Every structure is written in structure tokens, then in C-alpha cells.
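Forgive a beginner's question, but would it be possible to get a protein, spelled out as residues, together with the matching C-alpha cells, please?
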Amino acid sequence: MWQLILLDWQKHHLNQSLRSFVICIIVIFSFSIFLGNGGHSFISADDFFTLLTILNNITFMIFSSTLLARIIIREFHQKTIQVLFTYPIARKKLLLSKVVLVYVLTFAMLSISMLTMQLATWFVQGTMDLFPDYYALDDLLRDVPFTFTNACIMAGIALIPLLFGMRKKSTATTITSAVIISFLMNSTISNEHARWSLADTVIIPIMLAILGIGIAYLSFRKINKKDVV
């Protein structure tokens, strides 16, 4: 499995995605800082990190769809997957390695980016008047479990576009569905007293994450019994 994942990494030149990953972090953080540049634009540090989390989730769920499109959907669309299926390796194992690669990369990007921005916030808060309270290292450590849990769930939800992409073997459909899903999951409804989003209802994201993983499995469950068309 590890060798297959490594081969896909090299085949699709995923090292180049690291630069895009860094750029995404810089853009998200800079945009959030820009919104708060007027001084105490955020009620609290939690308010600021809620914005960061929303932008981070949307960005890397869409980023994940580009990985799905490149690593899986495009190979079916161009029928280059048929070459892989001639190798003496189980088809399910080949496709499972691709799904695992996308999931792990998405989880890593969501986690590392959020931790990086939290650390950056702690570092620059003395010079940026973003929120009235102080964000301490203890607060950062307190947020770590949520950061990893959120990344785990969102990485699962990010697999749902595979359902739409595999139906038409279309990279555009995969990415478009990811845009819609990411915005629906992270959009908020708020008034002066409260704010609500689908992501706030714990059971819904968990169910969608399970659905995403299930879809990933069902997409290649019968691959041994049918030809690629």
C-alpha cells in the first residue's frame, strides 16, 4: 500500500502542491488579518479562529477535490487507469491507495494549516489589534484536539465529490460539487445574538464524513467485476 501511495505521489508530482499549500495558508491568514485591521474587529480570539476555520475548511475541501480529480477521476476519463489494471495488483488495492492518499493529504493540510495560523496569531497578536483578549500558548494547546477532529471529519466529507465525479468521469463536476458542499457545510446564519452552521451540529458533519468514506468505498467496490468505460 505504501509503495502504491508513493508511486502516485511521484506520478502526479504532488511535491508541486506543497507550494500551493503554503500560498493558501498565506492568503487565508492575510485575508483574515485584513478584515480585522480596523482594530478589535473580532469580539474575541474564538471569533477570529472561527473565521479562520471556515476559510480553511472551504479552501482545502476544494483543494482536496482537485486532488481527487487529478489522481482518480482524470485517470478514468483518459482511460489511463486501464494501464494500471494490467499490473498484477488487485484493482481495489490500487484505488484504495489513491483514496487513502487524498484523505491523508487533506487531513494533513487542514491540520497543519490551522496549527500554523494559530501559532502565527499568537506570534503577531502583539502588533495586530485583532481582538481584545490575549491568545496564549495554553489556548493553542487547548484547541489542538478540535483542530485534529475537524480535519478528520472534513477530510471525510471532502470525499463526497467522488460520487459526482465518478458518475460522469468529469474533473469539472468533481470540483464544482466540492465548492457547493464546502460552502454549504461552512456557511453560517447569524444575528445579533447567535450564529449557526451545519458544522456546529456535531452529528451532521460526522454522518457526512462517514458518508464520504462510504462513497469512496462504493465507488470501487465492484471494480473487479466491470470494465472501465
Q: What stands out?
A: Residues 29-188+195-223 form one domain.
